[in-house]
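Q: Could you fold this chain for me?
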Amino acid sequence: MRRSDCIWAVCFGWLAQVEPSAFAAQMSDFYRGKTISLIVNYTAGGPTDTEARLLARHLVKHIPGNPTLVVKNMGGAGGMMGVNWLGQVAVPDGMTVGYVTGIVGAMAHETPSLKVDATKFPFVAGVEGISVYYGRSDLGLKKPADIMAIKDFWIGGLTPDNDKDLRLRAELDLLGVPYRYLSGYPGAAEARLALERSEIQFTVESMPTYRASIEPSLVQTGRAVPIWYDTQADASGAPHPDAAGIEALPYEGFYRQVKGAPPDNQLWRMNILMKEIGSTFQRTINFPPGAPQEAVDIWRHAVAEVENDADYKADCIKTIKFVPRFLMGPKIEAAFYDSMRVEPKLKAFIQDYIEQGKAMGGK
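A: Sure. Below is the predicted structure, expressed as structure tokens.
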């Protein structure tokens, strides 16, 4: 999905008809005195966890009834362990909500580790995201274009069918840059540590961790260099405002700079699809199947409210240097479900590409 005015026009389509005070009065008893579990499908310290904890600190005051909101991490299987638990085990009583990464991509290319039908998950919001690709400077990287001359280095990620891993491989393959691939890290924090140990030399990270950890500890100290970043597909390769200060271009802009016009092939189309999924729906807020509509409505209202919460914004800027964008409304909800349905030939290509990643092995 391309960024357009229609996205923002529908963001509050569900909610504009009800004044906050009236809504609170109507819904005050559902969560009164209760404890809500916010499930994060990656380990603590990664970007999904960071965003979820920022949200949890401030969202609770916008949920009528003054409940307690507790973040619980369930990492493993490239994020699918927590998603499977949400779909198979969680009681659908409104007291469990997922703040999860990667479920749209997993459904789109039928990730074997995904054991549930994510189209059955009630949708609250998508969380728009940017992913930054960076490498160790001791590879010989001083500026982004230097990556084109680097050979025989290790890239690393979570699983071969993870959408970030797919983009990581595809974007190097499209550039014709040779690499070796190591996967199996349970979360972004572990992949980052692997890069710091030089177990791998190139990886990708979403913006919260990049701003909070990688930029100050690796980039500003000269140990790493940002090479490009992914955002919603934009053929012009124009910079994204949330990437201000990062000395790199969006991938489309970088590609045009070093290679020229993009190719018309399945690898490019796969990467565009994965980028669209990983940007508009990088993370999503979902309930388990069968959750009460009342709970879904309360969360939609609370998420819309927290975007205007000055304390939340200040906390985000202090911690991750940007404020996450929540995409909401009937059109976004429809796009969430539609994005999981992929044309058969492209799906077959993606599945073959995943198998190639599995065959690449590791160290």
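A (continued): The chain has two domains: 5-128+278-345, 131-275.
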